[in-house]
Amino acid sequence: MLKVLTAADSAIDQAAVAGALSAGGARPGDRVVLSVAGSADYVSAVLGAIRSGVVPVPLDPRLTAYERDVIIADVEPIMVIDGPEALADLLRGDPVDLDPWPRCRPMHFTSGTTGRPKGVWSGLLTESHAESLVREERDLWGFHAGDLNLVVSPIYHSAPLRFAMGTLLAGGSIAALPSFDAGHLVEAIDVLRPTSMFCVPAHLQRLFARLDDEGRTLDTSCLRLVAHAGATCPEPIRLRAHDQFGTDAVWEFYGSTEGQFTACPASEWIAHPGTVGRARPGRVVTADADGQLWCAVPEWARFVYWNAPEKTREVWRETPAGPAFTVGDLGRVADGLVFLDSRREDLIISGGVNVYPAEVEAALEGARGLVDLAVFGRDDPQWGQRVCAAYVGEVDEQVLRDLATERLTPPKRPKTYERLASLPRTATGKVRRTEL
């Protein structure tokens, strides 16, 4: 059965992690890369780092050397934790005192139109801002000492890590699935009786399919909070979640690695179908004349892209509500409710994982015989979207598949390849992905 990590035991581990980092020469602002499978101990490692001012950089452990090396070169970490033993060594450090609040956010990486991964960096926080960051999450989601948060999504993603950290910082406990499996999720709910979990719609879909296949019911009355995000939730899955967990428990939120825009209880969606909710407390969401959504945030929720000042300037602007950022999504705001009309064209969301066509294209563009290439998303009943590629040239499809396997993690690899005589483009040369 899964290990349940209490706040008290985690605090001991966090102090040991901080001591190990200090002994290794890490100082506030230094980076440490975590490229290791998810676990409850992983969360203690992240908290031990940020409560001593060291910046954890969570990476998908499945990243290929091609993907990982460019990030490591960018952040110049003082340490790379790339296996279970290295993580265990952190937990064996001599304990030191911790700051009462995390002094920074983990630096998660996200790609974009250029295909080059960008680190989302919050800077080191003042003590008052650090406290505000923790308390706003606690106030919104109700984290408390009686909570048991079940981590079902990859822990290196920002949302599941944030929920787990918030629970421990509030005095609660956590347990983490090593990877998602609907059967293991059912067992964990039955045995551990968790009170909260974050998931993506694909997880809910697989859970319900498992229950149907087995012809069984599941007692989920223990769960006070089931939050979902990361992709559009199909209405049948959403409505079944309302029935399974109760409308008081189910919440959706809309945001990105860069920051969170809204939160929406099920009751609000029922009253206003299609909404992703109202702006989170302390935030103001607006839509510009082109329908692009912008979110003004408090000072402790601001960020820059690591070593990318031009990219940072592109996504921030001054508004009457203060500095606001965008991730390029289109929508509208009506009576304070935010409606998402479309996710950005250059983003594919497959099973809750963000896949940027430019990154996939950059990994494949050197294939011999390839003349032109465009990566795009198609609707998929299980994953929301699947990654597809259209190409021009005499290159063999297997060459492209082999290159994708060598250079890209599984969620980014195109599932289908289609050879075309030419790609549809605008007069200025931009690929019309929607036509593909």
| Assigned CATH architecture of the largest domain | 3-Layer(aba) Sandwich
Strand order of the biggest β-sheet? 7-6-8-9-10-11-12-19-18
Point out poorly predicted stretches.
Answer: none
Instruction: Look at the structure and name the CATH superfamily of the largest domain.
Output: ANL, N-terminal domain
Total of domains: 2
Summarize the structure.
This protein has 436 residues and is α/β, with parallel strands linked by helices.
Q: How is this fold's topology laid out?
A:
Blueprint lengths: L6 H17 L7 E4 L5 H11 L4 E4 L6 H11 L3 E3 L2 H8 L16 E3 L7 E4 L5 H15 L6 E4 L6 H12 L3 E4 L5 H11 L3 E4 L1 H14 L10 E4 L6 H11 L4 E6 L4 E6 H6 L3 E5 L4 E4 L5 E4 L7 E2 L3 H7 E4 L2 E4 L4 E5 L2 E6 L5 E3 L2 E3 L1 H8 L5 E11 L3 E10 L3 H11 L8 E4 L17
Helix pairs in contact: 1-2, 2-4, 7-8, 8-9
Would you mind describing this structure in some detail?
The protein has helices at residues 7-23, 40-50, 65-75, 84-91, 127-141, 158-169, 182-192, 201-214, 235-245, 266-271, 309-315, 357-364, 397-407; strands spanning 31-34, 55-58, 79-81, 108-110, 118-121, 148-151, 173-176, 196-199, 225-228, 250-255, 260-265, 275-279, 284-287, 293-296, 304-305, 316-319, 322-325, 330-334, 337-342, 348-350, 353-355, 370-380, 384-393, 416-419. It is of the alpha/beta class. The protein has two domains: 7-342, Rossmann fold, CATH 3.40.50.12780; 348-419, GMP Synthetase, Chain A, domain 3. The strands form six sheets. The protein has a nine-stranded mixed beta sheet with strand order 7-6-8-9-10-11-12-19-18, with helices on both faces. It has a four-stranded antiparallel beta sheet with strand order 13-14-17-16. Helix 8 crosses helix 9 (235-245). The longest helix has 17 residues, at 7-23. The chain starts with 6 loop residues before the first helix and ends in a 17-residue tail after the last strand.
